Amino acid sequence: MFAEMEQIVEQLKQETRFVPKEIIFCNIMNFYGRARLPDRAIFMFDQMSSFRCQRTVKSVNALLNSLLICREFGKMKEIFVGIDQYACPDVCTYNILINARCLSNDLDGAWNVFDEMRRKGIWPNEVTFGTLINALCANLELDKALRLKIYMVEKFNVKPNAFVYVSLMKGLCKVNKLNLAIKLKEEMLENKLALDAAVYSTLISALFKVGRKGEVIGVLEEMRENGCKPDTVTYNAMISGFCKEKDFDSAFCVLNEMEEKGCKPDVISYNVIICEYCKEGKYREANELFEDMPRRMCPPDVVTYRILFDGLCEGMQFREATFILDEMIFKGYAPRAVSIYKFVDGLFWEADVEAVWTVLNSLAKGNIIDVDTWRMWVSVPFFVRHKSIVAQRSVLLLSKDEAASRSFRGLGKLLSMEKIKKAPSLEDSLILSALPKGVTPPSSPSGKGHEMAINEKLFTLHLAHIDRILQSFPSPGIGN
């Protein structure tokens, strides 16, 4: 409710009983950052002086963090360059800047920021090292990450926190160094660091990946002994592991156990199984689980629809895919552009023109069809083979690309003249009446009854040439 919030903030300018505290504006900037409104965050920062509020490093850090969330790295640099007029940067300021460099995949720049803070006498903390170690692990520079873990203790007397250990364990599991990851887990226990479900979930995923699923039971028992209750992420890791081994019965057992233990499965739990079903060609099973999701109090999301739609298209199950597509559009979802292209291409190969028309009509109504798919639909070979259908239907739906739209509408106009006295069908009349203003080509009474023949070679002309040719012909008139 930003509009209402801003009204209240505006009233603070006239407040005389107290001076608004800086924390108010820090929170507002954080809200703008989370809402991906960086310009409003900057405006709020600039307006603080009009509220008689002194800007300090806290408000500067709040603004930098909001810009970081919005990935406005250039604006962050501009703010930091002029920071001296407000305050001296602290460790939090540099942690934000290091994180920005890491997110930009600029590790050299992150080290430069680290060196700068050292030169200014600012002592790094666990967040500083955690950010650098996480970035090194994400880039699989694990040797450097492990050395930095030792360096932070010996040189700066900063103990690694749980985030550092989890980052290292995830990186090690990615490269199948599971034994070393387990040693880090033991080190966490020795240092009396609380192990959360994320640590164990990472290990469970890695155990399945390297074919050591027999050890998963021991990990679950250790979790319970340490007072760490398995959460949805833990169970999803097990479901994913069993599905990748094609052990769907065990995956469903985990799904049922979740409900028994009071841990409600989320949409990811079902998406994982549906995805693996589709990969195995078990389309009926995938569709049954998809239809059962609402009964299990977990309605499918856009990812679920896309997984099933892609799987059905890959398996040439176009009839079932059409039903899923219609339901997606009805719910306001959209398939990926490449999936639509493959789907329409598959219908082309089956020469099911009516099905293509139905699908494209639905896509056009949902405004989720791209230029490449239209280009396939109005391609020369298909126009020549099915010109009676294409001319009367597809050309009426083009509205985004105005140049192509004029050309294709004109082609439809010319093709329809082959049978001058044939009245438009009820379906086509309804489509014409439903078109938005500006889509139907301009008409002229001078073209009524105009006859002409069409040569098939016309379709081999470039669209621009066709468009110019069409400009020389009068319109057939309103209603034709």
TrEMBL record:
Pfam families documented for this protein: PPR (PF01535), PPR_1 (PF12854), PPR_2 (PF13041)
InterPro entries linked: PPR_rpt, TPR-like_helical_dom_sf
PPR repeat spans: 90-124, 125-160, 161-195, 196-230, 231-265, 266-300, 301-335
Keywords: Repeat
Record-stated family: Belongs to the PPR family. P subfamily.
Name of the protein described by the UniProt record: Pentacotripeptide-repeat region of PRORP domain-containing protein
Lineage per the UniProt record: Eukaryota, Viridiplantae, Streptophyta, Embryophyta, Tracheophyta
